[in-house]
């Protein structure tokens, strides 16, 4: 799947979660969601592998559940960097990252290959 399609899917997922759970994630608008999806993709490609490697013993000890914390931290970092994109606290970021992942997966399955 191309980068542009994944970017649009993540943007739509962010907008859907922000619409249905406004107390969890708040997005200023379409362009803010697009920038947030782009930055989330960049951070997940660059910073996330480093964090996964550094926290491998803890991830192994928690049977992989610590990866949810890392995903929440990545979403929280994007929220801190982009004006107009807010995540409500640490657990809101963890839950928001889970919901965004689920919605992105569903949307990618609905698209023809």
Question: How would you explain this protein's 3D organization?
Answer:
This protein has one domain (3-110). It is globular and about 40 Å long. It has 113 residues and is mostly helical. 77% of the residues lie in helices and 5% in strands. The chain is built from five helices and two strands, in the order αβαααβα. The model has no long low-confidence stretch (mean pLDDT 94).
How would you sum up this structure in a few lines?
The chain is mainly α and 113 residues long. Helices cover 77% and strands 5% of the residues.
Mean of residue pLDDT? Answer: 94
Question: How many strands appear in the DSSP assignment?
Answer: 2
Q: What's the helix count?
A: 5
**Rounded to an integer, what's the Rg over CA atoms?**
14 Å
How far is the first residue's CA from the last residue's CA?
Answer: 8 Å
Largest sheet, spatial ordering of strands: 1-2
Oligomer type: single chain
Percent of residues in beta strands: 5-15%
Structural class, from helix and strand content? mainly alpha
Which descriptor suits the 3D outline? globular
* Biggest sheet character: 2 strands, antiparallel
């Amino acid at each position: 799947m191309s980068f542009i399609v994944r970017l649009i899917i993540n943007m739509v997922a962010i907008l859907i979660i922000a619409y249905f759970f406004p107390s969890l994630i708040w997005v200023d608008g379409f362009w803010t969601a697009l920038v947030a999806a782009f930055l989330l993709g960049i951070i997940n490609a660059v910073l996330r592998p480093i964090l996964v490697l550094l926290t491998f013993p803890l991830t192994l000890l928690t049977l992989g559940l610590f990866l949810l914390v890392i995903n929440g931290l990545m979403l929280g970092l994007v929220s801190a960097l982009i004006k107009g994109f807010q995540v409500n606290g640490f657990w809101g970021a963890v839950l928001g990252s889970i919901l965004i992942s689920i919605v992105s997966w569903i949307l990618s399955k609905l698209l023809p290959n």
